[in-house]
Specification:
This protein has one domain. The protein contains 9 helices and no strands. With about 200 residues, the chain is mainly alpha-helical. Helix 1 packs antiparallel against helix 8, helix 4 crosses helix 7 and helix 4 crosses helix 8. It starts with a helix and ends with a helix. It is found in: Cell membrane. It is a multi-pass membrane protein. Belongs to the UPF0056 (MarC) family. Keywords: Cell membrane, Membrane, Transmembrane, Transmembrane helix.
């Protein structure tokens, strides 16, 4: 049971709903509670399916299907998040422009790259190695939808508080968004460096 909880917490920590809500500030402001919940659930389903595939198949996906090293995925994922981090620095938390579209079209954008990334995929592979396939999928899905539920709750709290303290909420989101950019950029550079080190170690 301890291993199950630790595995679930590993993925939940990497999904980090309290950081996720900053990424989603654009859709959160534009969509009502029902629309936002539907978008998040669709994104969670997409991410859950991807994570389950990696939990069950693990490194086989990279070595057999994609015919690429996981290090390549780390470097590309890192570059994507470096771009996002730079946009956060200069534009604030509404930087991910692909999330500004219609509700029907942004679930995939939330799933990738907001939910699905090198860190969360790596965690899914680790969970798959620790547990049998069925249990690994259950752990992954519980973690994903726990994160989605927390984000939906934060959206509810945001809507309630914003009516009374709109200026304060706007300032808070702006500050947290730019601080988040430093975290995102640092992690992104680390992803790239880990990928480079993996390639160097291989050769």
């Amino acid at each position: 049971m301890v291993d199950i909880i630790e595995s679930g917490m590993l993925l939940l920590a990497l999904l980090n709903p309290f950081l996720l809500i900053v990424y989603l500030v654009g859709p959160m402001k534009k969509l009502d509670q029902t629309q936002f919940r539907q978008v998040l659930i669709r994104a969670g389903i997409i991410a859950g399916i991807v994570f389950c595939c990696f939990a069950v198949l693990g490194d086989v996906i990279f070595s057999t299907i994609i015919h690429a090293e996981f290090a390549s995925f780390q470097m590309f994922g890192g570059l994507v998040f470096i771009i996002i981090g730079l946009q956060f620095v200069f534009k604030g938390p509404t930087a991910i422009e692909i999330l500004q579209g219609e509700a029907a079209h942004i679930s995939g954008a939330i799933a990738m790259p907001v939910l699905i990334g090198p860190g969360t995929i790596s965690a899914s592979v680790i969970i798959g190695k620790r547990h049998d396939p069925f249990l690994a999928c259950v752990i992954v899905l519980v973690a994903v939808f726990a994160s989605v539920a927390i984000v939906v709750l934060l959206k509810t709290l945001h809507d309630y508080v914003q009516v009374r303290r709109e200026t304060l909420i706007e300032r808070y989101i702006e500050i947290v968004g730019r601080i988040t950019a430093l975290y995102v950029g640092t992690v992104a550079v680390e992803m790239v460096m880990n990928g480079i080190r993996a390639w160097i170690d291989k050769y």
